Every structure is written in structure tokens, then in C-alpha cells.
Amino acid sequence: MSRKRAMIADTFCLKKRRRSAADAVTGDSHEGAADIRSSLQKLMTLFSRKLFNDSLPPVVLKHQLYSLHSDKTSVDKQLNELRASGELLMFQLGFDSEAFALVFAEDYRAKVLQGEAGRETLETVEKFLDKLIPGCSDLSFNKEKMLKEFLFTDSEITRLVKSGVLTVRDAGSWWLSIPNSGKFIKYFIKGRKAVLGMVKKSRYGEILKTELEGRRTTSHVKFQMKYHVHDIVGAELVECIQTTSGTLLRYVDGNNN
Amino acid sequence: MLSFLNARQSGLDDPVRLRRAESTRRVLSLELNHNRDVARVHGNGINTLDIEVIDGRYMLSGGSDGVIVIYDLENNSKKLQYSCKTVCTVGRSSRHVHKFSVETVQWYPHDTGMFVSSSFDKTMKVWDTETLKPAEEFQFDGNVYCHHMSPVARKHSLIAVGTKDPKVQLCDLKSGSRIHILQGHRGEILSVRWSPRYEHILATASTDSRVRVWDVRRASGSLFTLDQHNGDKSKASSEAVNTAHNGRANGLCFTADGLHLLTTGTDDRMRLWNSATGENTLVNYGKVVNESRKGLKFTVSRDCSPEFVFVPCGTSVAVYGLHSGELITMLRGHYNNVDCCEFHPDYQELYSGGKDCNILAWVPVLRQPDIEDEETNSKRGGTQAAVNPAFEDAWSSDEG
């Protein structure tokens, strides 16, 4: 079996591999980060803006990147670098403890200010965004941090919650959130369930990826098919099998869905 | 391979390098071999396997029917086809057999004269291998999920026992006492492991999603709790702060050098931790399917250059690279769920047991002779059977 031969060859080609890998490593980190950024941008184009009347910035889920890149650990590392540099923001969506949403910082800022224009909460939100975007890469904030580090007052915090930038997590702590994202989450969960149902109902519980992407979407699926396919592949809700006719997606039985 | 041998011969390379490269190659080529199987004795699923440390010759297995079997893994017959025979069994007819399923068995770390088994009949028995009678029996209040004896201990002979009770009990083999308890968990203890590096360090995993590391010499509580977010409180919801997993933590395994600890949980994740600081190394293995209600027994390879983790996942055994997190391969062969697997460090073989009552031996594939060797042999009219020209054709390849 050719796969086995490939695995054996790896160890003994270590020397040769190392020489070429060493040259690649120095250029790799720049390429790697650029790689993730370009994959993120590619995925963001799949996000349907007009569905939300342009009030939401393009949102990508972290596990959608896993369907494009095979090494999850390096994807995580590069994402953390982007977050530390202030280019990317990560949000904890409520429905799954492992589902994180990623938004480019400039997009987020632009949309939030656009949504806030004309409201009285505008300045508080601006102040918060200024504090948040270059420095802070947290997903949630608790009271002491808001009061002492960011020097917000209680009434300002209430205004931030009202504007949708913060969501209540616990008594005295808040998640960072995207305003008007409730609709997004609702459509997303419905769409995910519908697409998974499509895979499950296919013959033998499996379907070619190209065929699934070509299928007509029902009214439950509001996003683009490719967006959902990246999601279910990255979250490992379906098994990805390489065949001679392309990638096959097989429904995995042990799902909670 | 020749370059490694040359380098070792001339002294350019450390002897360890050749060993490591060859071990890695062997682990990467594990497969089911029809020449090797293990005698089928259990009538019900196999819960646990243990290979003795001294010779690597005898293997213990414990089953859901309470039966304990000892196998001889060594091939003393001159034939290639070998079936690992049973040396002796503690069967249902024995007076001292466990009443319910045996959850964990372990050889005494210093010789094969003794082994310890613990079972859902709330007892842990210390057996004398020669007479197959229990020399000592410890009674507990709840089901015993797991126990472990330290493989490197010289100063103590404690057995750590995890039961339904949130308190971890330490039973002393020398005196028979069980007064030492470790308090701190709030749920059933599903897995306990001593560190293979320090004889006083113990790790425990529990249904309260926490994994604690203890120094048994300390009177006060655990040394630290493993936190999956590394202290970054913002990532977790408030209940999940300071937990190792988002579900029950049910599997523990130290790497062979004791520097890293692997944990698995019912949130379908496996995490690698630095065992000295308790830091999550954030290696992402992806979804490691885990539906086990009891402890999950998995193992790590030894002496290989990128180490491998063998985890039972449903009906197959998944092999992951330890530090890279990539899925190398899935070893498929069992007919039902796999419950336990054990790595034989000297021969780089993997034994796995599951609910289908089979113990499968995964053996490294021998090197195929090179094509050049085949040609030279046929020129000399040698031992290789030449293909009859009548059967040769132009379209099939002679590989595989």
C-alpha cells in the first residue's frame, strides 16, 4: 500500500527533509501567518453580508480553518499571533464551548461604529473599542478589570451591554460579543443542522463534497453551502475521506446533533 | 538505513539515534499480522492489559467476566506462525475469582511473582502468581475504577486506588494499611497514574472534570490542578474555570520520560500537559472520540523519535503524533469497541483488547526486500521463487 511506504520513507528521509525544511523554516513563519490570513479572507468572502443588511462584519469560525489546513496546532499558534498583534478578534459564541468566532479588527470597529451612529451610547463604545483593539485579546471581562484597568463606570458598562458589545456571562463578568449576532447564531445553527441532515439522509450516510456544494439549499440554509461545509468538516461532525472521485463526507454517528 | 548504520559504526552518531530511527520506522509500519495472534480465552470484553516490565514476556488481561489470564508473548517455537498461549488463568471456577468485571490489572513492578487486580465487586486483590491465590484483599465502599503502583518506587510500595468515592486511597502493600487518603476531588476518580520519573508524584482524573497532581509526601492537598486555559479565565464559562476538560476526565498517561502528561476527556479532546508546571501545551489533536463511562486506557510509545500516542477510538485504535497532534493512522481490526491498548517497548508491538473478546497484536511489518535484491537472487537461481513467464503480463506491477 502506497500510504505505508510514504510513512516509512519519512523517518529515513529525515536528513534530506531537514535540510530542505530548514531553508523553509526561516521563511515559513511569514508564509504561515500570511497563509492563515489569506485563508481567513477566503472564508470571509463566503459569508453572506446582505443577509443581515450589512450590519454584521464578516464572521468566520475558528474550526473552519481546520478544514483548510491540516496541522491544527500551527493554525492555533498563528491565530494567537494575529490576536496578539491586534489584527484579529476572537469571540466565544454561546452555543458551543469550542466554537470561537473570528472577525478582523478593522471590520469589527467599522461595523460597530456604523451601528452605533446617532445613538447616545456612541462615545462609550468608541472608548471601549480604543481600549480593546490594539492591546487586549481577552474573550471576557470581569468587573475589576472594567473598573480598574479600563476605568469605566457602572453606568458606562450598562451602556456597553445595551449596545451589544458586551453580553452577560455571570454576575460581574461579561463576554465580548458582536452586536446583532443573535440572528447570525440562529441561522447558523439551523443551517448546520439542515446540512448535516442532508449528509445523513443521503444514501449510506455519505455524499461527495462537490455534490453537496452543488445541491439546492432549502429555506433553512441561509448561508452559502461552502461556508457550512467548511464548518462541518472543521468541527469533525463528518468524516472526510479521499476517494478517486474527490472528497467524500461521511456522517459520523456519535454526534450529539 | 545504511547511512545510520555507517554513522553508528564510525562513531559519528550516538548509538541511540539508530535505535530511535528504527523504532520509529517500526511503529509507523504497525499492522495486523496473520502470523501472530493471542489465544482467545475471555468470554466477555477485555477491560485491561498489562505487560510486565522486566522481560516483556508475560501479559496480564482482565475481563468483564471477572476472569484474569496470563499470556506468554515470547515465540519459542521455531515457526513463524505463533499464537500467544495462556500460561494460567483465574477462571470462573476459582474460589477467589472476582465477582464482577475486573477493571484494572497490573504486574508488581519489580518481578512477576505478584500482580494486583481491582474490580467492580469493590475489592482489590493482590495475587500470588504461583498459587493464583490472593495474598491480600482490600475492601472498598464503592466500585473500584482503577489502581496503579509506581513503577519506579524504591522507598514506598503504595497502590493508589480510584473508586466511586471522591477520596483517592493509598494502600500500602508492606503493611496492609489504607489510612492515607488524598482529598480534593468532588467526583468519582476514573484514573490514577504514578509518574515514571518521580516516585512520589501521582496524577488523578475525576468526573468533576479536574485532573490533580499530588505529592504524596505532602500533608495538605494537591500540588496543582491542570487548567485547560492555562489560567486565562476569560476563555472559560465560569463553571469551567480550572478544569482540565469540558466533560469527565477519564484517561491519564504519562510519557515514558515523565515530563509530559496526556489526559483524555468525554468532551472528545485529548490534551498534553507539561507535568512539572501543569501548563497546557495546547497541542490540538482534534476530535478524539471518547464515550467511555469508565476510565480509558491508552498508551504512549517509547524510544521513538516523534513519540506516538495510541488511543482507543470506537472500534479502532488511533495513532497520533505526540507533539504535532496529527493523526498518523487508524488501526482497524476489532469488531467491537476497543477498551485498552498496551505497547511492548522492546519489540514495538501494540496489543489491544476490546468488547469483541479478542486481543489483537499489531506487529511491525518486516522490510520488503529491494527490487535489486530480487533480481540478483533470480540471476543466481537463488531462493526467491521466480515468476513463471507464462504468468507475467505487461500491465500489473510487481509491488504489493
From TrEMBL, chain A:
Matching InterPro entries: STK19-like
Superkingdom, natural source: Eukaryota
GO BP annotations, alphabetical order: positive regulation of Ras protein signal transduction
Annotated TM spans: none
Family: Belongs to the STK19 family.
PANTHER family hit by this protein: SERINE/THREONINE-PROTEIN KINASE 19 (PTHR15243), SERINE_THREONINE-PROTEIN KINASE 19 (PTHR15243:SF0)
Protein name per Swiss-Prot or TrEMBL: Serine/threonine-protein kinase 19
TrEMBL record, chain B:
Function field: Substrate-recognition component of the CSA complex, a DCX (DDB1-CUL4-X-box) E3 ubiquitin-protein ligase complex, involved in transcription-coupled nucleotide excision repair (TC-NER), a process during which RNA polymerase II-blocking lesions are rapidly removed from the transcribed strand of active genes. Following recruitment to lesion-stalled RNA polymerase II (Pol II), the CSA complex mediates ubiquitination of Pol II subunit POLR2A/RPB1 at 'Lys-1268', a critical TC-NER checkpoint, governing RNA Pol II stability and initiating DNA damage excision by TFIIH recruitment.
Gene3D superfamilies assigned to the protein according to its UniProt record, in alphabetical order: YVTN repeat-like/Quinoprotein amine dehydrogenase (2.130.10.10)
Assembly notes: Part of the CSA complex (also named DCX(ERCC8) complex), a DCX E3 ubiquitin-protein ligase complex containing ERCC8, RBX1, DDB1 and CUL4A; the CSA complex interacts with RNA polymerase II; upon UV irradiation it interacts with the COP9 signalosome and preferentially with the hyperphosphorylated form of RNA polymerase II. Interacts with ERCC6/CSB (via CIM motif); promoting recruitment to lesion-stalled RNA polymerase II (Pol II). Interacts with KIAA1530/UVSSA. Interacts with a subunit of RNA polymerase II TFIIH.
Pathway(s) per entry: Protein modification; protein ubiquitination
Source organism of the structure: Phoxinus phoxinus
Single Gene Ontology BP annotation: protein polyubiquitination
Protein name as annotated: DNA excision repair protein ERCC-8
The keyword Transmembrane is assigned to this record: no
Entry keywords, A to Z: Chromosome, DNA damage, DNA repair, Nucleus, Phosphoprotein, Repeat, Ubl conjugation pathway, WD repeat
Compartment list: Chromosome; Nucleus matrix
Disordered: annotated segments: 372-400
Extent of the WD repeats: 95-137, 182-217, 242-283, 331-362
Cellular component, GO annotation: chromosome; Cul4A-RING E3 ubiquitin ligase complex; nuclear matrix; nucleotide-excision repair complex
InterPro entries, per the entry: Rad28/ERCC8/Ckn1/ATCSA-1, WD40/YVTN_repeat-like_dom_sf, WD40_PAC1, WD40_repeat_CS, WD40_repeat_dom_sf, WD40_rpt
Pfam family, one: WD40
Main location per the UniProt record: nucleus
